[in-house]
Design goal:
Oligomer: single chain
Structural class: mainly alpha
Order of helices and strands: H
Distance between the termini: 166 Å
Mean pLDDT: 87
Largest sheet: none
Number of helices: 1
Low-confidence stretches: 20-24
Keywords: Signal
Strand content: under 5%
Radius of gyration: 49 Å
Helix content: over 70%
Number of strands: 0
């Protein structure tokens, strides 16, 4: 009877130890899954932050390029205005020269007559 009792006690202890191990394993697996999920989350956050930085840099570059284009457009407009004024001044000078030539011819004809 003592032998049977001892065998049953050992079997019960062995069974409870096996159950304890099977219960520990799921906890370890759950912990491992949790850690893996946390790592994936951290990686995704880092990737998102990197993408946001790239988007910000890209937006900044676009804004800089647009500002440069506006500045170049303004300079071109100034140059066009200056060229137009130069053409106007040249036209006035040519007209003054023609008028002077007319007066000179008229004066020559007046002295001949």
């Amino acid at each position: 009877m003592k032998k049977i009792f001892a065998i049953l006690a050992i079997a019960a202890l062995g069974t409870s130890a096996a159950q304890a191990q099977t219960q520990v394993a799921p906890t370890d697996t759950a912990q491992a899954r949790l850690q893996m999920q946390q790592q994936r989350t951290a990686d995704a956050k880092a990737t998102l932050a990197s993408q946001k930085d790239q988007a910000t840099a890209s937006s900044s570059a676009v804004a800089d390029t647009k500002a440069q284009l506006r500045q170049q457009k303004a300079q071109l407009k100034e140059q066009e205005v200056a060229a137009k004024e130069a053409r106007r001044q040249e036209k006035i000078a040519k007209q003054a020269l023609r008028d002077e030539k007319k007066r000179t011819r008229a004066a020559k004809q007046a002295t001949k007559a």
